[in-house]
Amino acid sequence: MLKHIQETTDFIQHHVNSSPAIGIILGSGLGGLVKEMKIQHSFKYSEIPHFPVSTVEGHEGRLIFGELAGKQIIAMQGRFHYYEGYSMQEVTFPVRVMQCLGITKLLLSNASGGVNPSFQIGDLMILEDHINLMPDNPLRGKNESKLGPRFPDMGAPYDHELIRLAKEIGSKHGYRVHSGVYAGVSGPTFETRAEYRYLRTIGADAVGMSTVPEVIVARHGNLACFAISIITDLGFPETLSQVTHEEVIRVATQAEVK
Ligand code: HPA
After folding, report:
1. Average pLDDT of the residues in 84-94
2. pLDDT confidence bin for 240, thresholds 50/70/90
């Protein structure tokens, strides 16, 4: 894995000479932030050695270097999901490459289902913590001590200062911004009614099929993480209608500006 990470990093550094300190992973229906960027270089995932290729509708699949609000950033437009069949190492490979490119902060967005009954569709939820319910952990296997420690602390996966800033910005704009616990599940099925009740019981406020593996790897690499969900559907009340991928993308896109 180290060899692949190094080869991919070398390939990128051969084409791009900026060294961004911030990485961004854009979730389903949330790739439009790229329109706000001054793009310096854009790679299709299929052009990058050792990069998996994204398969899901609504995920564009580009790694973009450029400037956003005066900062040099790397943005992933579209991410890799465990449910697509990738291993956890493949899902998190881009985070390793960004780590080796020298980022110090990782910002992630995603679409998620509301588990907290006070949430409404279109609300935002800042991740304060997560529960890994995926059937694997990206750090399973031999530890590469060059990348991080064998047993990384997960007591505070999300950076307190970034959370504080985001809350301040959200309230300045008058958005409904919650903070809470994100349960990461494998998917691709949405939850049964019983599973939503279970998630509520174990302390989750939202549920989704991404983010947790990337944050685990980022924390292993000592990156400061910030993640935010758009609540695209609700597990409560139990009478609500079916969840579809199309609806998730529609709500996420509509709430994108927030
Ligand atoms: N469950 C799991 N993942 C999701 C959901 C959901 O309800 N909505 C968007 N991603």
Report:
1. 95
2. low
- 169 burial via Cβ count (<10 Å: 0-12, 13-18, 19+): exposed
Residue 28's Cβ-count burial label (10 Å; 0-12, 13-18, 19+) is buried
Centroid of ligand 1 to alpha carbon of 31 (angstroms): 18
Which residue's CA lies nearest to atom 9 of ligand 1?
112
Question: What pLDDT is recorded for position 27?
Answer: 86
Q: How far apart are CA 62 and CA 82, in angstroms?
A: 18
Tokens of 73: 């950033």
CA of 247 to the centre of ligand 1 (A): 11
Q: Is the pLDDT of residue 11 over 60?
A: yes
CA–CA dist 12, 31 (Å, integer): 21
> Rounded to an integer, what distance in angstroms lies between the CA atom of residue 16 and that of residue 40?
8
- Regarding the beta carbon of 207 and ligand 1, being less than 6 Å apart is answered yes
Tell me, what amino acid is at 239? T
Distance from residue 4's CA to the centre of ligand 1 (Å): 32
Q: From the centroid of its chain, how far is CA 17?
A: 25
Q: Answer yes or no: is the C-beta of 211 below 6 A from any ligand 1 atom.
A: no
Q: What is the mean pLDDT of residues 218-246?
A: 87
